[in-house]
Specification:
The structure holds two protein chains of two kinds. By secondary structure, chain A is α/β, with parallel strands linked by helices. Chain A has eight helices and ten strands. Chain B is mostly helical. In chain B, 82% of the residues lie in helices and 0% in strands. The chains are: A alpha/beta, B mainly alpha.
Chain lengths: 267, 263
């Protein structure tokens, strides 16, 4: 059974008004358990909208979404997924530790277990010395790492990530990418990952979903076959470059306006 | 020790300000613009305070007023908080309750005193009704504004954690709205205290224990200017006490943990 199943999904903003936008039109996608799927495409292609629909932060105009065998809303209420955004969205009145512990608190974990897990998470995002700081005392990149730690804390079966590493420096970004992959490999987590970086999508994913705007739709799905994902040398292998080229060509082919993959980074 | 020193540092400008008021006051008395029966000297007012103290009236009046004020204020919080949350979060409730709250907030609660006396007599029910009518709209309205100002990223973070409705109130909505809510509580206390004084002045007879308002009434009836000024000084001191001992530390804690400026 697929973890996320989206069929004939459409989302129209401001329907019936002059500023009506077809953010997504007739999108179908099925994501299997343990799969890592990236959504890539130029700004306005609906990749974030699709992620928010799966997360039930938006309601679709038409179509169906099934997450972990339930309605999107039920799986949100059951905390079946962890989520991280471009903006950290931490709670200002809670310390770093208390932010990370919140999902565990909601699941009814006891104090010792929560503390152990939050320490583990802080080590993972390399912020152990900031446990008792408040979010506003950290830099933007550090806040982002705390938000990622919060999303991962409960080891949810599904992770929804919207350009979570965008605000990080290159070294931290690569470290977080590798860590994310090893967590997923160890726990069998399914990930839906929005990015506008082709190498990031290729490095992380089993499949890269290429989208194009006006109206937002899926134009191609590129299979990536890099065995041994967690390897340091992955980024230097010919298969890696071949996959990057495949995604770039798919973006170019779907370019609805003159330029190639507008808004897509090539780093 | 450092706490004592910081208190001393904070108290210094206050003491200087009050000292200046007393000096100007004494200067006016010496200039003999009015007889001391109309403008008594600071020493005469201090005497009146001493008299109230030795009669035992001072402590009992302060206690009566302060505990009535605080009790009324706490009742206001208990009513205004769920009311404010309902108005802020339930669209149907908001559309018709918000205008009523706004209207009540601009209405001086003293105007309810005569009606209240007719309904409840000069009892503590009257006093509490006036306090509630003064404080509840102000606390509830501020809470609504506080909730309205919660950034969308926080709402989104709450809903992705599966928090909605009542569950989100304790963990996200109230803490996120806390700075605005706190301002509302301070304002609510100010309204409660003013309303109480007005009620005590107007409804000073009957089975109500005597409060600070009664000192003013007794002073007026006996044309005792020193006594009235002593009463005013006590009302002022009680207000300051609640502000400095209650709200200031609370505000400092809430704001500093959120990285907001502390004044």
């Amino acid at each position: 059974m697929s973890t996320v199943s989206v069929s004939n999904l459409s989302k129209i903003f401001n329907e019936g008004k002059a500023n009506q936008v077809g953010a997504l039109v007739d999108v179908s996608l099925s994501i299997e358990k343990g799969e890592f799927v990236s959504l890539i495409g130029p700004s306005g292609c609906g990749k974030s909208t699709l992620l928010r629909l799966i997360a039930n932060l938006l309601e679709p105009t038409s179509g169906d979404i099934v997450v972990a065998g339930k309605s999107a809303k039920q799986s949100r209420l059951d905390q079946d997924y962890g989520m991280a955004f471009q903006q950290a969205g931490l709670f200002d009145w809670r310390t770093v530790t208390k932010n990370i512990e919140l999902p565990l608190e909601l699941k009814g974990w006891d104090k010792t277990k929560r503390e152990a897990r939050s320490r583990e998470m802080l080590d993972l995002v390399k912020l152990p010395e900031f446990a008792d700081h408040f979010p506003w005392q950290l830099s933007g990149g550090m806040q982002q790492r705390v938000a990622i730690a919060r999303a991962l804390a409960a080891h949810p079966p599904l992770l929804l990530m919207d350009e979570p590493f965008g605000a990080l420096d290159e070294m931290t970004r690569e470290h977080m990418q590798a860590e994310l992959l090893s967590i997923c490999a160890a726990t069998g987590t399914t990930v839906v990952f929005v990015t506008h970086s082709i190498p990031e999508a290729v490095y992380l994913s089993n499949r890269v979903v290429v989208m194009s705007p006006r109206p937002g739709r899926i134009t191609k799905i590129v299979d990536v076959n890099l065995d041994g994902h967690c390897n340091e040398t992955t980024r230097e292998r010919p298969e890696f470059f071949a996959a990057i080229t495949a995604v770039r060509e798919a973006l170019r082919a779907s370019g609805s306006h003159g330029h190639t993959g507008v808004g897509v980074e090539d780093r | 020790m450092s706490r004592l020193r910081s208190f001393a540092a904070a108290a210094k400008p206050f003491a200087l300000g009050m000292g200046a008021v007393v000096i100007v006051w004494q200067a006016i008395v010496w200039s003999k613009v009015k007889p001391t029966s109309q403008i008594p000297s600071p020493a005469m007012v201090a005497d009146a305070l001493g008299g109230l103290w030795s009669d035992g009236v001072l402590l009992s009046s302060v206690w009566n007023s302060l505990h009535r004020g605080v009790l009324g204020f706490l009742m206001s919080i208990l009513i205004a908080t769920p009311l404010g949350l309902a108005v802020a979060m339930v669209r149907g409730v908001r559309s018709f309750v918000r205008p009523v709250l706004s209207a009540l907030q601009q209405l001086p609660s003293v105007s309810w005193v005569p009606i209240s006396i007719v309904l409840f007599g000069t009892t503590s029910t009257t006093v509490y009704a006036i306090i509630l009518l003064g404080a509840v709209p102000s606390i509830a309205n501020s809470l609504v504004s506080g909730v309205d100002l919660i950034p969308p990223t926080q709402w989104r973070a709450a809903s992705m954690l599966g928090l909605g409705g009542l569950r989100s109130v304790r963990r996200v909505v109230l803490p996120a709205a806390m700075p605005g809510y706190l301002t509302g509580l301070e304002q609510g206390w100010a309204f409660a205290w003013r309303s109480l004084m007005a009620a005590e002045l107007i409804a000073s007879t009957g089975d109500l224990g005597s409060g600070l308002g009664n000192i003013l009434t007794v002073g007026r009836n006996s044309q005792d200017m020193s006594l009235m000024l002593a009463g005013v000084a006590l009302v002022l001191a009680c207000g300051l006490l609640v502000e400095k001992a209650g709200f200031s530390p609370l505000r400092r804690r809430v704001l500093s943990s959120r990285g907001l400026a502390v004044v």
